[in-house]
Amino acid sequence: MRLFWLPTSDETDMSQLLQAAWGGVLAGSVYGLMAIGLTLIWGAVRLLNLAHGALYVAGAYAAWIVIDLGMPLAVGIPAAVIAAGALGYGMHATIIRPMLGRPGWDSATIIATVGVAIALQAAILLVFGPRVKQIPAVIPGSTVISSVRISYQGLVIVLVAVVSLAALFFYLRSSRQGMAIRAISQHMDAAALMGVPVQRTYALVMVISAGLAGLAGVLLSSVLFLSPTSGFTPMIIALLVTIFGGLGSVKGTIVAAYLIGILESSVQVYLGGAWALPALFIFIIFMLIVRPSGLFGVPEARRL
Amino acid sequence: MILEVVGLEAGYGPATVLHGVDLSVSEGEGVVVLGPNGHGKSTLLRTISGILTPRAGSLQFAGEEISAWRPDQIASAGLVHIPQGDALFGEMTVHDNLLMGSFVKAAWLERHERIERVYELLPQLKNRHNLVASNLSGGERRMLAIGRGLMTNAKLLMIDEPSLGLAPLLIEQVYEQIQSIKESGMAILLADENADHISGLADRVLLLESGLFVREGPADALLADEALLAAYLG
Q1: Residues of A in contact with B76 (CB under 8 A)
Q2: B145: exposed, middle or buried (C-beta count within 10 Å: 0-12, 13-18, 19+)?
Q3: What are the tens digits of pLDDT across the range B135-169?
Q4: Residues 6+ away with beta carbon under 8 Å from A144
Q5: What does pTM read for this prediction?
Q6: What is the interface pTM, i.e. ipTM, of the complex?
Q7: How many residue contacts between A and B have a Cβ separation below 8 Å?
Q8: DSSP readout, A237-252?
Q9: Are B188 and B30 spatial neighbours (Cβ–Cβ below 8 Å)?
């Protein structure tokens, strides 16, 4: 996917390098937001949520509604997070909770999340139609730093993503609820014996994960276009990131997001945009041969 | 009476393991359930702590009927189970494992004082506080599991076979710690395979065979009856 347009001609080596780095940080930030939610759910609930892309789109449309009503994007961003988070809560209450623990639930829930994705996308298509929409930038305009064009929106995206990821990291590391999420992912019965309400914690994980997907949706839709199916490619890349980082590893996912972002952006700068996605897949396939459980993954271990 | 079990039946799938068990623990009392492997000791503790749902009978803890409660509700009420195999959070540090013991809000507010007390009681944990739990030795893991139990707001601590898999020297240490916990006033319900180490902490002993209590009595009388213990425990 050619996410961010990067000029390739008439520039010095240094500015090419800077361009690759900036593009990589920008893409990596969005991939990180998107992938961390998948990793959280996998780590805690052992569920592969293929509705993640639909939650991304749903969040972006919620923001679009708010902006269409004449409110600024500063209101649209929390609206996206809340709308997607509420959908995540609904998914837990109606689909995941009744299925968990039943025979064959692991594959059943994957299929169910595909169903949710299709239903959500169809509903959005019915309500909003197939025409693409765009979300305006928080701050329009751009600046040039050593011949690299940096949009203010890009800066906002990086800032919001880095702050959100750091907040999540510290939340998981030392807050009561965050530690409970890690505890459940490592030993569910033991967590329950310490008084952790398992289902309520699952619901919390779904809300956080979906909220982050909604955040990624509204941020990225201001750079790309928004359509009922535009969450698909970001979700696929998020899946690549999650697998590369080691499913269930938060640290691995964040490192992988930026590595993949920088790899993609470098390929775009040095080889051209058409090579970005093929190069990414070749890299991942090679990685999975060398390290089948990803960067930070331990085979079949639960890590958060 | 802090725990009152009446007519408890429980099991897995089609198999019934406990066939109507009566048991009670008073405040500050040390009760030991003895029985050979596979006769229902772990099933009994797992049913009391809510991991298994009872099929019949009543479970009363601190005056409330808990047989329909979830494990986290039972733990929050102060009935804390240290299961076999320790059930540690393998990729958390010793310190974080202990903190998880204080997950319940009332305990969480006092977690710093509690952790100091646990480090005082189990100094070997303090030396290892930054180590990931899966890197601990067997004895240290058991100590951590017990320490984590002490981080809770437990009124009754249920401990399942604390000596399992430990070297003889460590076994002594573990039972000494449990004994000092009991002496601090905590009620303890302990399940064990043999009677070698329990004399210091048991007030009352029950013998479990094929899911039924076959003998029950004060610890000094029952533990003195070597012929009886040999017959049941081999």
Answers
A1: 195
A2: buried
A3: 998 889 999 999 999 999 999 999 999 988 888 88
A4: A150
A5: 0.88
A6: 0.90
A7: 78
A8: HHHHHHHHH-TT-HHH
A9: yes
